Amino acid sequence: MRWTWVITVSLFFAPALALGCAVCGTGPERSRAAYISMTALLSLLPLTMLGALVWLFVRRLRRLEPKEGPPPREVVSEPSGP
Amino acid sequence: MSTQETHDHGHGDGHAHEPQSFLSKYIFPLDHKMIAMQYLFTGMAMALIGGFTVYVFRMQLAFPGAHVPGFGMVSPDRYNMLVTSHGTIMIFWVAMPVLIAALGNYLIPLMIGADDMVFPRINRLSYQIFLLSALVLISSFFVTGGAFGGAWTAYPPLSARGDYNATGLGSSLWLVAVALEFVAFLLGGINFITTAMNARAPGMKLTDIPMVVWMIVLASIMFMASVGPLVAGAIMLLFDQQLGTAFFDPNRGGDPVLWQHLFWFFGHPEVYVVLLPAMGIVAEVITTFARKKLFAYKTVLYTAAATGIIGFFVWAHHQFIAGIDPRMASLFTITTLIISVPVAEMLFVYIATLYGGSIRLTTPMLWALAFIAEFLLGGVTGIFLGAAGSDIYFHDTYFVVAHFHYTFFPIAFIATFAAITYWFPKMFGRMMDERLGKIHFWITIIAFNFIFIPLFLTGAAGDHRRIYNYQHFPEQWTPTLQNLRILATYALLVMIAAQVIFFVNFFKSLKSGPKAEKNPWKANTLEWVAPSPPPHGNFEEMPTVYRGPYEYGHPDRELDYWPQNEPA
Amino acid sequence: MTTVTSTSAVRPEPRPKKKIAHSGVIGMLVFVLTEIMFFAGLISAVTITRSTALMNIWPPPGQPRLPVEETLINTAALLLSGVLLGVAHFRFKKSPELVKAPLIAAMLLGAAFVGLQGAEWVALLAQGLTPQSSAHGAFFYLIVGIHGLHALAAIGGLAYVLRRAQQGRLIASELHTAEIFWYFVVLLWPVIYGRLYF
């Protein structure tokens, strides 16, 4: 079981060797690293910001709640399920 | 400023019930419903242009060199122009305005029980900028050199230099139009998100919001978070074209792959931006016509959010042969295969909703069921393209084209037809003709499959998508493959002809259909509480919400539906 | 099963609704999110282009070095104006009248930033750094120019707030909406400065 992990991770670094595409060339390592890091930046930045906004709104909502007494705690609507 | 003075239900200056002049009612309206109609009709008009372009170039592919009725001979540069225009128009000027802008504008305030958008003036500005963008795009057909001919993805260096793509001015106008269009949807998106957060009817909890509203809001959030880099890229490309900078020119220190990086960062989330509203429409239609609660409301919501999140990590699968790092390719293969899980889960939930329901096969229901079936085919064929190994073979073949259309046609047309036929009584106060609607449905669906199944086959046989005349490629100019191309073209002609039935039905019903009552489908959501068509200000009496949107077949009630606003 | 559903469908009369934030503030936050992504696109473009530079030499041979030290003055002016707007924010809580002085100072500092940037452009153009001369110049004028346009728009927003304050009609949400945009412009600048000038 432990070996599955090791094999998976090492396979992750293999594709550079195994790539059989005749028309695909890649740039120097420096440029590849820039692409990877900027891909990570572009992908993670919006999610981080949205997460922060959602967190902020949820916190504000929590602060607004207790002022008016405990919310009604009878069955919260559960529209899911048949 | 109207935007600053919003009250509980978010009414700005749009809150007026007095009669208005023609100009302020139809040309410069603040009413969200009228703006939605403007978007809808503009989108329909653009669909006609997009449909005409596909007719011309499919004729060229089936009968190379022949005279195309209504157009004439198709030269290679004209062919590029037509293909580019078809892709751009159908995605940016049909799918986006109809699914997001028109339905979002129409449905969000009505379904959450508000009398208008939170920012009515920004809403009006949004449509005006959108109209301007459409006019800029149409004007590009008439400039020297013609409309842009560098494919809808506009890869440089082909798109960066007028002497490469032979459409110097056209390509700049194309970029300006696309950028303006994004600004328009940006303004619309701000409105949708804020309205859904702040203008909900009293009592409406987050889990009482109808699914289609959730989906449009989530799609808007995705759009807003992904569009920035593409606008940045568009400005850079415009500078390359007009100012002679070298952002994408490798001879002078630029990097052409950079454009793909920026373009696909938007380009792939865009797929989910249009998919989510379509999924929401289907959720509304199937619950109403199966008379059943949506199976696992929260699951649908979470899978939609998961789709949105994973949707930001799949885009490099468009670049598997563009020279990206193979390590990145393997990573993006994994994420691409993962994203099929939440999408498939949504489809399973819809099938579970249908299970055991008392299904009524009305026209909107037929469209919704067809969406599930056809989109499933599109999703499954996407697996081959998401995996880097098989994509190297399939890249840029007709297999990709067929896969893409099996996802986008259900989204942009099948779901839209479901929405139009479902909400038509609310929008115009009259019922559509069911018989014509069903004829239109069956012809369209059968013809659609006859167009794209042959293209899967030609694509697997190696047909490259950017070739305008296969006679120049003897390996591909075999009778079998050519017959498949001709079959696809004939099916397309049938499908385009079937749309005449739709327009006849639409305008006939608009003029002389039977009057619709408030709630013809016996549905629960708040828009059916308003009169048909709703007046300016939407509701006779602002509704209060007491329950979720899908309370069908409740055991304690005689009626099998329970509107959200009815007190217990 | 039946009992659960029947209770779940019955709910007490809803209470008046609370808002998380004012619509203008939410709208502006969403807009700023989009803007941040726009600049993230530009910054990722610079980073990638720099990584492909020949022999890793940047700026490219024959291109002037950007005036790192002089620009520190601009940077300081802009950051200070952000601080002053923060002062205005807290003084507004005491009395809406008190925002005027820090608001005017923040606007002037912002205008000074844009003016100094303009002077820098003129000097650099004279030294041979043009949008066409290299990717370095192209990115410099593109990003700094767009940031400058944002600064002008944000100053316009502050001017609107100032007019409302002079009329005595300024409300908190207007001030906060304009503030968010100005903080965005201010805090973005150090990132651009760090990426472009060094």
Low-pLDDT parts of chain A are 67-82
- What is the CATH class designation of chain C? Mainly Alpha
Rg of chain A over CA atoms, rounded to whole Å, is 24 Å
CATH superfamily annotation of chain C: Cytochrome c oxidase, subunit III, four-helix bundle
The most extensive interface between chains reads: B-C, 57 and 50 residues
- The H-and-E topology of chain A, N to C, reads as HHH
CATH architecture of chain C: Up-down Bundle
Approximately how much helix is present in the residues of chain A?
55-70%
Secondary structure: helix percent of chain C:
over 70%
Principal-axes shape call of chain A: elongated
Per the CATH scheme, the topology name of chain C is: Four Helix Bundle (Hemerythrin (Met), subunit A)
- The count of β-strands of chain C is 0
- Segments of chain C where pLDDT lies below 50 for 5+ residues? 1-8
Average residue-wise pLDDT of chain A: 72
Strand content of chain C: under 5%
Report the major sheet of chain A.
none
Q: What is the rounded distance between the termini of chain C?
A: 67 Å
Order of helices and strands of chain C: HHHHHH
Provide the structure class of chain A. Answer: mainly alpha
The radius of gyration over CA of chain C amounts to 23 Å
